[in-house]
Design brief:
Length: about 280
C-alpha cells in the first residue's frame, strides 16, 4: 500500500512543479508587457476645461505589435482615458471612436494620436479636441476619428459634443477653425461616391445646447484631382462663407492656410494660381 501511494505522488509533484514554473513565466511575461506601455500625454482637465478637481486625460500606448500584412511592426494600441479616479475608470468611453457601425475590424483600434489640444469656440466654452488614427493599410490609407469633449458642470462629467470618422488618401479633412468669421466651427470635406467626383462639405457650429450642430452641407465646386494645390476646405472657403452670408463677391477673398500670395476665384473655386479648366 505504501509503495502504491509513493508512486502516485510523483506525477502529482511533477505537475505541481510544472504549473508553478508556468505561472512564474506567465507573470513575468505579463509584467514585461505592462512595462512596455508608455504614457503619451496627461492633461489636467480641472484647469484646462474648468472641471472639478481630479479630472484628467490620460493617453497610454501599448507595445508595438506584429502585422502579417506589413513587414515592420505597427505601433501599439492607444488607450484614451478621460478619468476622475486616476485611470481606474474612463468616462465617457472612447474605445469605439474608430469602430464602424457594422462592428470591429482591423482598423478599429487607435494607434496614432495625431492631435490633442484645448480650444475655445466660445470664451466660456473650452473644448478638448482630439484626433486619432488607425494602423495604415498597404496603400497608406488610415481611418481617422476626430472627437470633441466638453465639461458638464451640472453632472460633473465630460460629454462628447462632436465625433466624425474619415479616411486619409482622398484629400478628405476635418478642420477646427481657430479664427475669423467661422471661429469655433468644425468643417469636414469628404469624397463623394459618384461622378462628378467632388466632396461633401459640412459645417458644424456650437449650438445653444452645447453640442456641435450641422449648419451647412453641400456638394463642392472643387473636383477631385483637379490640379488645385489648395486643401479642399481652403478652395471651398468662399462658397462656405457665401452660403452662410458671411462673404459675397467683391469682398476680399479669405486667406487660405499656408502661403498663397494671390488667391483667385475661378468659377466657384479658389485657386492660388490660374488654371485651365
Amino acid at each position: 500500500m505504501k509503495s502504491i501511494v509513493k508512486v502516485s505522488l510523483i506525477p502529482l509533484l511533477l505537475a505541481f512543479l510544472l504549473l508553478a514554473a508556468f505561472s512564474r513565466v506567465h507573470a513575468q511575461d505579463a509584467k514585461s508587457s505592462s512595462s512596455q506601455d508608455r504614457l503619451i500625454t496627461s492633461i489636467d482637465l480641472s484647469q484646462s476645461l474648468e472641471a472639478n478637481s481630479g479630472w484628467r486625460l490620460i493617453v497610454i500606448q501599448g507595445p508595438n505589435t506584429a502585422d502579417p500584412a506589413m513587414m515592420d511592426p505597427i505601433p501599439g494600441k492607444i488607450r484614451l482615458c478621460v478619468t476622475k479616479d486616476g485611470g481606474a475608470s474612463c468616462f465617457p468611453s472612447l474605445d469605439g471612436v474608430l469602430r464602424l457601425s457594422s462592428g470591429n475590424d482591423e482598423y478599429s483600434d487607435p494607434r496614432y494620436l495625431n492631435d490633442v489640444r484645448i480650444v475655445r469656440p466660445l470664451a466660456t466654452r473650452p473644448i478638448l479636441l482630439m484626433q486619432v488614427a488607425s494602423q495604415q493599410s498597404v496603400n497608406g490609407n488610415q481611418r481617422l476619428a476626430t472627437v470633441a469633449l466638453a465639461y458638464d458642470h451640472i453632472h460633473n462629467s465630460l460629454a462628447l459634443v462632436y465625433e466624425k470618422q474619415t479616411g486619409k488618401n482622398n484629400d478628405e479633412e476635418i478642420r477646427y477653425i481657430a479664427d475669423g468669421p467661422l471661429m469655433g466651427a468644425i468643417i469636414s470635406a469628404e469624397p463623394t461616391s459618384d461622378a462628378p467626383f467632388g466632396f461633401w462639405i459640412t459645417v458644424n457650429r456650437l449650438g445653444a445646447s452645447g453640442d456641435y450642430n450641422q449648419v451647412l452641407r453641400y456638394r463642392s465646386a472643387t473636383r477631385y484631382n483637379d490640379g488645385n494645390r489648395l486643401a479642399v476646405i481652403d478652395s471651398e472657403m468662399p462658397g462656405i462663407l457665401q452660403r452662410l452670408h458671411l462673404w459675397h463677391p467683391g469682398m476680399r477673398l479669405p486667406r487660405p492656410a499656408g502661403a498663397c500670395a494671390e488667391p483667385r476665384l475661378i468659377g466657384q473655386e479658389m485657386w492660388c494660381q490660374s488654371a485651365s479648366r
